[in-house]
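Database export, one record per block. Field names are fixed; values are copied verbatim from the stored entry.
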Amino acid sequence: MKKSIFLLMIATLMSADIKMSDAQMKKMGIAVQQVREIQSEAMGPFIGTFDYNDKGARNYTLSSEATVAELMKQTGDTVKPGEVICTIASSELLASSYELKDLRNRLKLAQEYAQKDQALYKDGVISLRESQKSALDVMSLKAKIGEIQNRFVFSGADVSPKNGMMFTIRARQNGILAHAPLKTGEKIEPFMPYLKIASANALSAFIKIPPKMIGSVQKGALLMDKTGKEVGKITAISSGVDILNNSATAIAVLASSNNYRAGTSGEFYITSLQMDKWVLLPKSSVTKYKKNDICFVKTANGFTPQIVEIQKTYKDHVAIKPAGLNLTSKVATDGIIILKGALNGLGFE
């Protein structure tokens, strides 16, 4: 009986078209907005923080203590290979540069002696052991030079002497400067990353998941913002819980990083992998009419009322079953009271 009454009400509403021209809509302040599709059973809200993941990223470290002397690039800037990021001051690196210069001079002499000893050995003047000793001296000096050179090119860093204790740090890849010193005078600790260059499309959301919901979040699930817009996809989730914040971490690669910045946070919803499709409407488009939720769908000649079944309420939107609506549908978002008056037979000017 109830179902029959419900169907009768739908049939009555569907026949109650409200004819209205675009000029009349504009005059009465009636605005429309296109609907969007959303996956059902979205979980949340969850809080996520933004950062660049390590895939394709490079951390810059030094083997010596240093101090930032000048900043040419800051976090968030794009860089190209060879561009100067900053200059640093380091007495240890200065000592290493002097040592490197001395070793290179010694290597040059050792190589000359080794060549002479090799010729003397071939002439029978000296023994094989004596000629091998000079060759070993060359190998030892090359190893020492290599070790010191690594202090200047360590974990991707490109450090070159500038003047005195000053050294220039240059980028060795294209990307976004995901991490950099904040100010001059900042200390750089040995073997601690002080720069990070990441791929421009590697911005990810790191989302905290309560323990009781870990089993519900799966790889491949869609990530949505608070408006219901799809913004990324879950690519990994930790199996354990961080005892410091009593939560697991889900990682989502973002489809676009235009609206987000590393170090900030946002509110997200995560979908289940087995879902129906819902239609997302602005909250302002839905109103009560004779104990039912309705919206006004734009037609060629005006509007037609549509009963909707609300499935989930978000901050600024509601999700409904898609019956009677599709992705090309537009609904009224402003001037709803005027349309309700027309529906009640009050008319409009």
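Remark 1: Confidence is low (pLDDT under 50) at residues 1-12.
Remark 2: The longest helix spans residues 91-122.
End of record.
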